[in-house]
Amino acid sequence: MSGNNVNRRDFLKILGWGGVGVAVAGCDRPTTVTLEEGKEEVVAYLQPEEYVIPGVGVWFASTCQQCPAGCGVHGRVREGRVLKMEGNPDSPINYGKLCQMGQAGLQGHYNPDRLKKPLLRKGGALTEVSWEEAMAQLDQKVGIASGLNGERFAWFTGTVSGHQSVLLSAHLASMGSKNHFVHEVINDAVVRAVNQDMLGEAAPRYLLDQAKVVLSFGADFVGAGASPVYFANSYAKFRTATPRGVLIQVEPKMTLTGGSADLWVAIRPGTEGVLALGIANYLTTNGVDASGLPESLRALISGYGPDKVSKITGVSADRVARIAALLKDRSPSLVLAGASAEGHAHGYQSVAAITLLNILLGNVGKTIVPSGASQFPQMEAKPGNTRDLLAFANAAEQKALDVVFFHGANPVYTAPAALGLAEKIKNIPFKVAFSCFPDETAMSADLVLPILSAHEDWGTHMGVYQPEQKSISIQQPLMEPIYPDSKGFGDLLLVMLKARKVTGFDGFEDYYAYLKSAFAALPASVKGDAVSDEDFWGKTLQKGIVKVATVGGSLSTKAIEINLPEFKEDSSRPYHLVPSARLGMWDGRHANLPWLQEAPDQISKVVWTSWVEVHPQTAAKLGVKEGDFIKVASEHGAVEAQVYIYKGVHPDVIAVPMGQGHEEYGRYAKGRGVNPLKVLAPATDAKTGELALYATRVTATHAGRRELLVKLMGNETQLGRKMVATVKAEVFNRTEGGKDVA
Length: 742
Hints:
By secondary structure, this protein is of the alpha/beta class. The protein is built from 24 helices and 27 strands. 29% of the residues lie in helices and 18% in strands. The chain is globular, with a radius of gyration of 27 Å.
């Protein structure tokens, strides 16, 4: 095509439509697209389009990049500036809704600390250079003439999908490398592994709105979860159903989801699997058929009687029985596992015990259904994990890498201090960061390339959790670049592929031309009623979403052997550290956004800093009051922050939220609060190799100072004035005709 020796099948792979999509497209009408298609004249805003009316906003569709969920958005543009974000009603992920992180994305776009020019390390310091010098340095280190051994080259990214993933994979292949480290602190890698082994699919669909009871073991699905806006919509349907759905949340520290539960149960960290087996024990001794389970598993369940479970978990036997009875009597139900269940050296075993409940209760096929795959597998999200962070730290320590490219991840910040990554990364001779901001990893790099913000760039994405409709979401610029010396990530990938003379990419003028050609090459089954390629492209930009077919998908239950270790106390370090994630700060990537610093935590209402959540019993034992600074110390370091006394944590828990404690990352983030990830022990899940985020034991002592804890509210008690009356459930049922559901 157009003078390139590329056959149709390879051409479609280049455009991201490989795998099943190739077969579909090959049976379709012939394409007339050329590699040059997509070129067009770019006109400055001094000559605005005819539809632009001064003072009147115009909405454009795009994709939110604030977390891996991939929500569709509409951006309101007025006089060439994007001013407001809202959800895209056509998106099957968020249906027109948008969380506070998506709204705050504008502050990342207009952030005064954005990188404006390339930086090159000279004499130990990063110095501004021209793009010509930066690209010359890049070509010298990774170009064809560099002689770089591909096995010593790597990409380190966050979750990546869409055509960026296609080009990144092509670049890795051109380098002769398979080293792609994909990192996310907030992930469900352990749950995915268990689902694959027990259900036959790593990421099935959870029909929350079809369940009558949801039992969640720390799954913060409406907060810091895989797709918070989608599940918030599902949760609303669950709550308004007839009969109204009942949510039971079991976790060591109350999450946003836990704060919405009918019954919140505090559990000793690391014992979630024991509680799941205790519930299974009640079910199997009260009529639930377990004959399909292996004899060894039935024997295991029989050994977790009420007294044993209560002693280990701290949850009373009566409450265990009540939870189990609700699950048995209200079918179908749904049992979910989250961060608190995953985050231990036996996380896989705990999640397996939790998943076993879904099998016993017959939820598979009712509230857990197959998701299947997209017809274009190259486009699907590559979800991040913490296992790759540990593997990368090991590779750096072994001096196994000569060149590493970073994008969408900040491992120098997220890595526990025990890994020593800040020092180990110095073993890598040449490090390149593609970044908007001067975060810790960018400032450790040898070359920093400033990229466009999500509101200025082109791209395509597939959410990490795809609900009932598989879809590709388009990302388009909502305005012209604020800083002319920033470049699009896709454009840079394309330039690097051309530099390595990869067949098939040389004919595209830029990333926009590549994307437009890719969409023109889609089969008619995807294009629908579009009368031409140009018409389809225009409709795609207007809708922001392209719906694609689901291929395959089936679930098959398999009960695996479960081996939970004996729970042990540690008198030298009596408390469990919980580095809690929250909607807003997330894993620290939004600490440079003042709106999210100012937004109060959903539970504590604290703003602009870190705090330590302790139970009133624990506070009394330590002799601390709210506002006192407390020192939380593990074997690998210590952090100090103010105390927030709260009944929503287990007495054995010290909870410190993630997100603060940056040493770089601009004026709004640097030097504010503490980073609990730094003091984590480098323990891992025995099965998956994931970092055990909840496995660190700590001591807590008064730090000897006190300040006013800044919150967006005053007293949290009624001060004895009975402004809000409370009544026992049995009294309410007797006098008001209520129904006890928990």
